[in-house]
Amino acid sequence: MANAEAAPAPQTADVMTTADGTPLKVSLARAVRKSKTKAALLVAPLLLFLVITFIVPIFEMLTRSVSNPEVATHLPRTSLALQQWDGNGVPSEEVFDALVQDLKDGRKSRTLGKVATRLNYEYSGARSTVMRSARRATRLDEPPYRDALIEIDKDWGNETLWRVIKRESSAYTAGYYLAAVDMEYTADGKIGKKPEDEQIYLSLFWRTVWMSILITFFTLLLGYPIAFLLATMPSKHSNLLMILVLLPFWTSLLVRTTTWIAMLQTQGVLNDMLVWIGLLSEDGRLQMMHNKIGTFVAMTHILLPFMILPLYSVMKTIPPSFMRAARSLGATGPVAFWRVYVPQTIPGIGAGGILVFILSIGYYITPALVGGQSGIFITNFIAYHMQTSLNWGLAAAIGSILLLLVLALYLIYNRLIGVDNMKLG
Question: How confident is the model at residue 2 (pLDDT cuts 50, 70, 90)?
Fold first, then answer.
């Protein structure tokens, strides 16, 4: 009887169970689910950090680049009344009555500055028109208001201004993106190019891209032999060279940039040396600061370690026996290097190139200090609109275009070379 009670539960031929009678399939699913939950909990802090510091800011930037609440929020009666206006001629007395009420309310609540600034982005002089009219509208006690407002400021008789107000009454706008690519709404409401003397952003985008590509190329040109020496020299020498490569990381970016200012300026160290050895006259000193040359030289030096380190990490894994085998089979040194060694360093070239290019296309401190008017990047205008003009919508639109540009170039790189070939070590 005791042996019968101690016997395990019978198992059918179709369903296997564990010792406690739970089906084996259910038990395995439960174990897998528990392991996945543990893994998710371990990753959750990092995921939350990425969402807060990366996803949310990008979403906020994309939202702000099309957000347009100022006119609809602070001129609500006018926005509603303009919905019935066909866009031709000066609006009716009903629209002017709504405008006067909005101006009076906005002056009391001190919110007219926001809508005036927003309209001024699209119509030059709109800020002074709105603020002046708001001050004098308090003296207007009863209608009609149309002639009185036009007498206060003649711009109220300009149908272009009213078209701008009606267009900007929408909660979303494409105006920031149009301004970011040197386009605008014309007087008749169509989209056209800005005058040539006002077109600045497209040329800045192009300058930022080609200079970033040039900086990437020259960091590769200078960094490749250094990385090769690091990977092939004896340890006692390569360690010293590695310290020299890493030394810039121990110095502030601002210090490194100001050092280049001291070296490259007209009365700087480099010009003084060229004059001293007789290559230049005192009146023929080179202008290498506050232009593209200053930006190019300073950024190439600053970003050079970011090219060397990925190259070194890949070169260090290449066995020296490959080159010896190629030479033993009849290849000369240059042929063996080009046909055997260089193809194996492609992952490091790709990693260093992507790293340097993305860093350089987003730089703004160094171009601001050494670039002058001809050497600044588009990122300097993003900083300007964020800190000085406070046109955050335009700054967000430029940043969004720059982000899409980087993503497009990344996809092209992936198509031509492949991100699978990119390695950091």
Answer: very low
